[in-house]
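Case study 2.
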Amino acid sequence: MSDLFPDAQPEASRPADGSRRTFMQQAGGILGFALASPIASQAENLAEKLAPVNPVVSGASPLQLTINGQVRNLTLEPRVTLLDALREYLDLTGTKKGCDHGQCGACTVHVDGQRVNSCLTLAVMAKGKEITTIEGLAKGDALHPMQEAFLKHDGFQCGYCTPGQIMSGVACVKEGHATNDGQAREWMSGNICRCGAYPNILAAVREVAGQSAKG
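Prediction:
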C-alpha cells in the first residue's frame, strides 16, 4: 500500500478526525475572542459618528399659524399634520380627511396661494405662511365665484369631496390650467369624487375660468 501511495501516512500516525476537529474549533474560538473586542469597539465608534444629532424630537411646542387672515396660537407636537391641526385643534372641519395618504384631494387647502394636500403637510411647515381653507373663500355673505358655480352646476352629490374640489378648482383657474376641458380634467385629476359628479365639476371650473379670462 505504501508503494502505491508513498505520501500516505500509516493509519496510526494520522491524528483522529475528532482530535483535528476539536483543535480547529478551539483555534477558531481563540481567534474570534481575540478579534471580537476591537471589532465591536470600532463598530460602536462608527455608530456614534454616524448617529444624527438630536435624533428624537418630542413634546408639544407653541406655534402660530395664519389661517384665513387670522393668527391662531396653538400648542402642537411636531408630528401633527396641517389637516389635523385644522380639524382637531381649530374646529375648521370644512377641510375633509379622506384617504389620509394624499391620493384623494379631499384635504386640499392653499398655502401661500399654492394648493397642497394638508394630510401630507406638517403644521410646522406652514409657519409664517398664509393658509386658506374652504371657510376663508367667501367674503362675508358673498360666496366665491367657484362656490357659486358649484351650486349653479350642481357640482356635488354627497358633498364630502366638495371643499377639496372647490379649493383645487380655484387654484387650477389661478394657475391658468383650465383653458380647455382636457387641461382642466388633467389638473383636477388629483381630486377624487366617489359619486362621479365630474361633468358638473368640470362645468363649474370651466365657467369660472371663462369669467377670469374675460376679466
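The longest strand covers residues 61-67.
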